[in-house]
Amino acid sequence: MLFYKEKGESAIGIFSHEEVACTAKWGKIRSMKRRATIAEIASAAGVSIPTVSKVLNQRADVAVATRLRVQQVMEEMGYVPNQAARALGGGRSGLIDLIISKPLDSEYFLEIIRGIEEVLHREGKSMVLSIVQEEADLERLDQVVNRSADGALLLLPRLYHDSVKKLQEHALPFVVIDPSVPLDPLIPSVGTTNRSGGFAATRYLLSLGHRRIGIIADTEHYLMAYERFAGYRSALEMHGIPLDPALVYQGNFHPEDGLEQTNALLALDNPPTAIFAGSDWQAAGAYRAVYAHGLAIPDDISVIGFDDVPLSRWLNPPLTTIRQPLQEMGRMATTMLLKLLAGEPLETTRVELASLLVIRESCAPHMAV
């Protein structure tokens, strides 16, 4: 079952001037008292925020003395976590919050959600979808953690550290899917082997005789894009080919960028004979640019993508790409989150699933002139 909620709403209290004045003077209305944060609990107990989070979620991997010290500080500071309050009201809700930062206009998101739904359905749980479209909207995470969801999955192509910090402070268990920035090793996350995927894509093109290989990747904003570029660069170096900055273009994962940047690559005095696109959707934009120039794929230029979403099999010709196990990423992240909710220790907090080269018909040998 999927519940859609684009933007949450929070209730506000309305007080008279007399009530506010009385509260400010005497401080006797307990509901107006600021609740201690998990960061303050950690500081007072002399431990880290993740340790407090583990205590709150009844994780077994905390020393008894540490657990008792944290619990004592929470009692002294009158800390009652949201999850504890929900437990007093009848236990867990059975809801998992999926927080994404873009509308569901890409098969990338849909494939991951299929994996998430598979596990939740099997476990008798449901998903609430929350979309934050701008960086400022991440302030709405306060509303997310105060809702009835038991935990959260973060699928944010532009992940902001403040969002992770906020969830940690509220002790809401969460797992990051396909992180776009380097994370603290203690933060649970699931991704794929982007660097080896970039290496495999480039090595395959090199094996076909290509030496001028253009790449479109937003290395400035996305960790996964930088890792794929690093794999591309390593493959070139292994074959003794110096990196040509003229063949490296910045662009996100949308078809519009694939179209724009491929047009720029084809306009070079010495254009590439192959293009490594940052995603399959970006490759679709590259296809349009190639055809607009009166060229054919793969006869005149080869194109390779990344993701292996269903679209890739329906392009003409079918797209050679690097398969990213998107559904398995969703399944794995959900399984990890359910373990955290059950108080079970994770075997590892960082999981990287293997990427795989899928050869179809968009790449062909290049004969040097």
Describe the structure.
This protein has 369 residues and is an alpha/beta fold. It has three domains: 35-75, lambda repressor-like DNA-binding domains (434 Repressor (Amino-terminal Domain)); 95-192 and 326-353, Rossmann fold (3-Layer(aba) Sandwich); 194-325, Rossmann fold (3-Layer(aba) Sandwich), CATH 3.40.50.2300. Helices cover 40% and strands 15% of the residues. It has 13 helices and 13 strands. It has helices at residues 17-26, 38-45, 49-56, 64-76, 82-88, 107-122, 141-145, 161-169, 194-207, 223-238, 255-266, 280-292, 326-341, and strands at residues 2-5, 95-100, 126-131, 151-155, 174-177, 189-192, 213-216, 248-249, 274-276, 302-307, 320-323, 350-353, 356-358. The strands form two sheets. It has a seven-stranded parallel beta sheet, with helices on one face. It has a six-stranded mixed beta sheet with strand order 8-7-9-10-11-13, with helices on both faces. Strand 2 (95-100), helix 6 and strand 3 (126-131) form a beta-alpha-beta unit. Helix 9 (194-207) packs parallel to helix 10 and helix 11 packs across helix 12 (280-292). The longest helix has 16 residues, at 107-122. The protein starts with a strand and ends in an 11-residue tail after the last strand. Mean pLDDT is 81; it is low at 1-34 and 83-90.
Features:
434 Repressor (Amino-terminal Domain); six-stranded mixed beta sheet; single chain; alpha/beta; Rossmann fold; seven-stranded parallel beta sheet; 369 residues; 3 domains; disordered N terminus
